[in-house]
Amino acid sequence: MINEIYVFLTKGGIMMIPLVVSSIVALAIIIERALQLRRKKVLDPHVVKMMDSIREPKDIDAAQLICDQSNSVFTSIIKFGLENRDLPHEELKELLEDQGRQEARILERGLGALETVAAAAPLMGLLGTVIGMIKVFNVISQVGVGQASALSGGISEALITTVVGLSIGIPTLISYNYFINKAENLILDIEKYLMVLMQKIRQLGEA
Question: Which 3-state string (H, E, C) describes 3-71?
Answer without folding.
Answer: HHHHHHHHCCCCCHHHHHHHHHHHHHHHHHHHHHCCHHHHCCHHHHHHHHHCCCCHHHHHHHHHHHCCC
